[in-house]
Amino acid sequence: MSCDICKKPFNILWRRDTKCKRCNRIICTDCSKLQQVRDVFRNICKVCMQDCETIRKIISESLLAWNHNSEIAKRYWVKDVEFIKSMYKLNKEIKQSNIARDVKTILQTPMNYSIQEFLNLLIFNNRDVEVTITNVVDTFVTRNPKVGYNQYLIKLTIFLLCFCKDYVCLKILEDLYNKIPKQYYPEYQTTQEFIKDHDQMQHDAIQDVKFRFKLEQDQIMAAKQFIESAMMHYKNQFFLNLTFSSAFYILDKIIQSTDSTEIDKFFSVIIQININQLQTKNSELVIARTTTVEGIKQYQNQLAKKRSSLYLSVDKCAQDARQQSQQSCRTIQRKMDVSEFEVDENENLSHQSPTLLQSQKLEITKLTQELLSLEQQINQLRTENQQLEEISVQNTATLFKEYENAIGDLIDKTEILLKQQMMSG
């Protein structure tokens, strides 16, 4: 047996210390920290210590309070709080009776150890909390019938209300569901069309993981089984089954991003981080433990570097195409210069013999027509080349500057298709 954090084996000299009183890891003395929580001392692992420090830092620095607009919400998540307040009105009467019942049930069911600790620090009066959550979810469902309702929506609302007022929470919920594909709408997931879409989503996720990262065959099989069994569970709740630090990092990025595939990219990263834990017992708890913000950033950086190299390849292809077009124009110009030289020589010959005059005139006429035709071809090629350069510049500016996230996804999918072709070939 070994320490769940540092992986050092336990022996006579290296004895097991205890279980972490927060995440239940088996930890050694070096990986254990003594923390005081509400006048009670407890041993927790150093990973949990870091997560606790992150929670307290965010609460204190961003002035978090239940159903209160924090600095995070006002500065990064929405633009005009007062305008939102005037536009987003909550229902005075609850229209969905099952929502109130579900809210009460979920509040009585603890979430994972990290998220629950964060909620415990901010939520006190259960009666007021239930009413607020129910009003927000009920109003959202009423305003957005195409999105629909499930219990994941309640969990997301509870988390968001720790950062903002109810009307801002409603706005953020609508923005979130407007930017993600309809396949993540609870209402759409009840339709027959979703069954076909779900199979395709699983296939795309498997191919994405398979070609985005270097995996062994057994790892690919583990990823495939995990995608088939857990993909929607993670995505539907926006990864709120991870620790607070990781869940907050991911949700913050999704809220601020304009990329509709951001949720899919984070899921791929989580699979890669936990590729050797996907089939372990209590895999959801293990994944929550092992997924850290540092790990997520590390794989994001790897993907960013990979995407940058693809951008350079695309730029080089565009540059080669422009150079090839310019070389074609120069070739035509050289042919024109040779033809003009031939005309001058024919004119000189015409002075030498009158019998050659008529034939030379005919030849000159023929060459002149050819020259005019060549000039027209050159002008046409120059126009086409200029149009190609303008289109290339415009596309480059648009695709690589204004819509960088969109083309990044396109390049990823193109790479997958190319590799599939190579494998099938």
UniProtKB/TrEMBL annotation:
<dbReference type="InterPro" id="IPR017455">
    <property type="entry name" value="Znf_FYVE-rel"/>
</dbReference>
<protein>
    <recommendedName>
        <fullName>FYVE-type domain-containing protein</fullName>
    </recommendedName>
</protein>
<keyword id="KW-0479">Metal-binding</keyword>
<keyword id="KW-0175">Coiled coil</keyword>
<keyword id="KW-0862">Zinc</keyword>
<feature type="domain" description="FYVE-type">
    <location>
        <begin position="1"/>
        <end position="53"/>
    </location>
</feature>
<feature type="coiled-coil region">
    <location>
        <begin position="357"/>
        <end position="394"/>
    </location>
</feature>
<dbReference type="GO" id="GO:0008270">
    <property type="term" value="F:zinc ion binding"/>
</dbReference>
<keyword id="KW-0863">Zinc-finger</keyword>
